[in-house]
TrEMBL record:
One of its GO terms (molecular function) is indole-3-glycerol-phosphate synthase activity. Coiled coil: none annotated. It comes from the Bacteria. This is Indole-3-glycerol phosphate synthase. The keyword Cytoplasm does not apply. It catalyses: 1-(2-carboxyphenylamino)-1-deoxy-D-ribulose 5-phosphate + H(+) = (1S,2R)-1-C-(indol-3-yl)glycerol 3-phosphate + CO2 + H2O. Transmembrane segments: none annotated. It comes from Kurthia gibsonii. Its EC number is 4.1.1.48.
Length: 260
């Protein structure tokens, strides 16, 4: 069984428990558009992640204050804050997301393994503007249902792919924000070349923005994926471990080739 299978199995258990609770979706919190932030920007944008732990690295930062970290990200010009809300494998929570969303005025992404409408409702109620849907985790019909449900609640969706086949599915369901995860979720191996492979398949009529996720450690990494076609990068571990979070984030906002 792969780690993704294990995570999805755990999610099904959590969803069944959640379905036994009475919670109403609240839609009065403001939402901010990540898509608009990423359109026609002169420099590479950064989606900065709050990530306490991960299956591949174990504990990264156990005693982090998510709101303080998020404020540093916002001050440094992050386009969006990604909050890992999975408790079991990543030591995050929806409470983290809610606390962050209450304190910033940029989009907040619920980074989790979303398989059911109630998780989308909980994201909206907590103040997320964006949710993640992973193509590898869902049959296409279900992916489209959840995508449409999220947009009906005014949420945007980051659709995550790993290969060209999944990229085709993401485009077929009408995804406006597509991310390629450079990390293989079965082996944890990171290869930034995945960004180039998928970005090369993008054509001029494609309306979506394109994010390179995982494994960005250096300015050279940011320049590489930017030159390969990424509009934004999603960075977790490097920012969580950085001594100077704000200057590290700013250093990743590299000028995009051919845009002045
Ligand atoms: O990070 C992991 O170990 C991981 C394992 C299995 C599924 C997902 C995983 N990570 C989620 C992410 O997508 C990353 O947190 C995100 O892209 C940031 O990655 P990084 O900058 O390498 O921390």
């Amino acid at each position: 069984m792969t780690i993704l299978d294990k995570i999805l199995q755990q999610k099904e258990i959590e969803i069944q428990k959640r379905l036994h609770t009475e919670k109403k979706v609240e839609t009065d919190k403001p939402v901010y558009s990540l898509y608009n932030q990423l359109l026609q920007t002169p420099h590479l944008q950064v989606i900065a992640e709050i990530k306490r732990a991960s299956p591949s690295k174990g504990m990264i930062q156990s005693n982090i204050n998510p709101v303080e970290q998020a404020k540093k990200y916002e001050r440094a010009g992050a386009a969006c804050i990604s909050v890992l809300t999975d408790e079991h494998f990543f030591k995050g929570s929806l409470a983290d997301l809610e606390a962050v969303a209450n304190e910033v005025t940029i989009p907040v992404l619920r980074k989790d393994f979303i398989l059911h409408e109630v998780q989308i409702e909980d994201a909206r109620t907590a103040g997320a503007s964006v949710i993640l849907l992973i193509v590898a985790a869902l049959p296409e019909k279900r992916l489209k249902e959840l995508y449409d449900y999220a947009t009906s609640l005014q949420l945007e969706v980051l659709v995550e792919v790993h290969d060209l086949e999944e990229y085709t599915i993401a485009k077929r369901i009408g995804a406006k924000i597509i991310g390629v995860n450079n990390r293989n979720l079965k082996t944890f191996e990171v290869d930034l070349a995945h960004t180039k492979t998928i970005a090369s398949a993008r054509n001029e009529i494609d309306q979506h923005v394109f994010i390179s996720e995982s494994g960005i450690q250096t300015i050279a990494d940011a320049e590489l994926v930017s030159n390969d076609g990424a509009d934004a990068i999603l960075v977790g571990e490097t920012l969580m471990r950085a001594e100077d979070v704000e200057s590290t984030l700013r250093s990743f906002q590299v000028q995009k080739e051919g845009v002045y």
